Amino acid sequence: MSESFDLIVIGAGPGGYVAAIRAAQLGLKTAVIEREAKLGGTCLRVGCIPSKALLESSELYEQSREHFAERGIVVNDVGINLPQMMEHKDGVVAQLDGGIQGLLKKNRVARYFGHGRMLGGGQVEVTEDGGNVVSLSAKSILIATGSVSSSFPGMEPDGDRIGTSTEALSWPEVPEHLVVIGAGVIGLELGTVWRRLGSKVTVLEYLPRILPGTDSQVAKEAQKILQKQGMNFQLGTRVKNVSANELGCTIEIEDQDSITCDRVLIAVGRRPCTDNLGLDAAGVATDKRGFIQVNSAYGTTAPGVYAIGDVIGGAMLAHKAEEEGIAFAEKLATGTGHINYGTIPGVIYTAPEIASVGETEDALKERGHKIKVGRFSFAANGRARAAGHMEGFVKIIADAETDRILGVHIIGAHAGELIAEAAVAMEFGASAEDLARCCHAHPTLAEAVKEAAMAVDRRAIHS
Description:
It is built from 14 helices and 22 strands. By secondary structure, it is α/β, with parallel strands linked by helices. Strand 5 and strand 6 form a beta hairpin.
């Protein structure tokens, strides 16, 4: 006899475990299936959290070596203990995994360890590590299996010298020369880590710009700053083949000389993780790229089967998956749930950070939308100057007629924290004047947001 549940969640990443907890809070008997020992999905195990731990550690190292002296702080013989740095990263992951395990237990969510596969008709089988198969059934099944790194023919990862973000988070030594293929978020963040630790970093990008999808003005500023820091960009570059041996890697490029290096990071995007899930057996349809098709209630083409997170496409962000998990659980249990896709922020954790919410100036102009734009540089902000973080700016885009804020883009120190104010303002339908009239404490970096809002109507005070 199979154990029966109201809801079975396949995948315990940010979307899956959050959906399971919220469903349990709402009274549904819930189970979650995860084949990895650690919960939290790619985000916690080999993504957001470990990368941020290394970004923070590497920034402290670079600051102590190159910038402390400017503040009158003398530090001699600063070095790297890479194993200790990796141990700290792994410790953070372990602590957070333990926290999620505790949350599932607290909310009485049943946890099954193994690979979940749908059989149709609400039936799910879990294949455990030892080969034992457990049968489960549920009124509703939620697919929240996330995504995995993509690669192109000729540049397949080998798990060692040619790696994805997973391998790049655990390399045993600092590469003398690292080549990053792809100038998106993952490539720039991990390229930044290894550059700070001593690698020569070359970034190859097929497009004529970095950070596709971000505001072009912000991307241009980011490239200028990252180049100044020592990162080398080769844009408009088509990689034909990547190979490796015990001595290093060779990258063949169309119409250019080959590049040799110590390691290669493949960072050309991510694809949905749906292998061996039983989509066909359950009757779940996907689009031509493999993303699961869903309706407004996250329902798939199979009755009683739902999907959220990276596996349905859109912004591949942990917090987007979490919001979808909560909205799904609330719709399932109560009939109502809400998520505003227009106010989901995104953050890139380089130094300076890059954060955005809403529309870009490029997209709005392409649609012929009449807008007005305000911009304020951190160089004119007292707190930024005192802290020595004067690079970057805040950019606010508003509707030319209604003044409603349509997008906010920030490149600068702590941009990831500052963007929250903009996201809240947009969620409440604020105008640029609304934000401009809110009193901001002095001296703070947030004053730059206020000044940018004032600049929308050409009335900034400090620029």
